[in-house]
């Protein structure tokens, strides 16, 4: 019957064509949830072959369930250090994350040369691992620097202007404060010489006489 509708087609060729089309349609039975199996006797009469066995429904179900994993169960993008760099990049309005990374490494290295004691250890524990390594890799300087001298020392090491270095310091210290919290920052300021409070965005308090 199918061969009669196609001019020049043999019965065998028509049977192959019908078999190919029906095999594809049978595969869509799983997706369209067609009720019941195909008519096997009708299939044999038309195609002269054994009907294909549909694939188990579990295969489709598994794919769909994996595609619907809740967003809250997906892994967050980036490491803790990358998130810190993004905060510094935003706070400092840097054009790239690489520029923010340069500022972080410069300022944390300088802070590592000034900060000692338990505050140094506690701050390292609060920072992302990469940042903590930069801080603790420095040997504390025997000559404490005030906040302004700290900025001038960093500027001399890089050849940047004082204004640029002051901006870098404030941008990085803002991210450091976010990781450390207000209590630890207060302790850090109590250990460092004067002038660092302004770099951390706090008012500089003068001790009473």
Task: Tell me the Rg in angstroms.
Answer: 35 Å
Give the number of helices: 13
Which spans have pLDDT < 50 for at least 5 consecutive residues? 18-38, 54-77
Overall helicity: 55-70%
In terms of DSSP E residues, the strand content is under 5%
How widely separated are the two ends?
111 Å
Specify the biggest β-sheet.
Answer: none
Alpha-beta classification: mainly alpha
Give the number of DSSP strands: 0
Q: Would you list the SSEs in sequence order as H and E? A: HHHHHHHHHHHHH
Q: Using the alpha-carbon principal axes, give the shape.
A: elongated
Could you characterize what this model shows?
With 209 residues, this protein is mainly alpha-helical. It has helices at 2-5, 11-27, 29-32, 40-47, 58-67, 80-92, 97-112, 117-126, 129-136, 147-158, 162-180, 182-191, 196-199. Helix 7 crosses helix 9 and helix 8 packs antiparallel against helix 9 (129-136). It is elongated. It starts with a helix and ends in a 10-residue tail after the last helix. 21% of the residues are buried.
In short:
65% of the residues lie in helices and 0% in strands. With 209 residues, it is mostly helical.
């Amino acid at each position: 019957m199918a061969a009669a509708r196609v001019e020049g087609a043999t019965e065998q060729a028509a049977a192959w064509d019908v078999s190919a089309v029906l095999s594809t349609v049978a595969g869509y039975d799983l997706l369209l949830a067609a009720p019941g199996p195909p008519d096997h006797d009708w299939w044999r009469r038309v195609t002269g072959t054994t009907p294909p066995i549909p694939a188990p429904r579990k295969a489709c179900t598994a794919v769909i369930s994996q595609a619907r994993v809740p967003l809250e169960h997906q892994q967050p993008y980036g490491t803790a250090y990358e998130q810190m760099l993004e905060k510094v990049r935003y706070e400092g309005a840097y054009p790239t994350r690489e520029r923010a990374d340069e500022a972080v490494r410069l300022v944390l290295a300088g802070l590592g040369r000034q900060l000692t004691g338990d505050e140094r250890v506690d701050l390292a524990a609060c920072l992302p691992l990469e940042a903590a390594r930069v801080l603790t890799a420095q040997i504390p300087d025997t000559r404490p620097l005030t906040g302004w001298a700290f900025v001038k020392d960093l500027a001399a090491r890089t050849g940047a202007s004082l204004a640029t270095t002051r901006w870098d310091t404030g941008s990085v210290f803002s991210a450091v404060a976010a990781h450390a919290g207000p209590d630890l920052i207060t302790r850090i300021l109590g250990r460092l010489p004067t002038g660092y409070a302004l770099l951390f965005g706090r008012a500089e308090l003068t001790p009473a006489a």
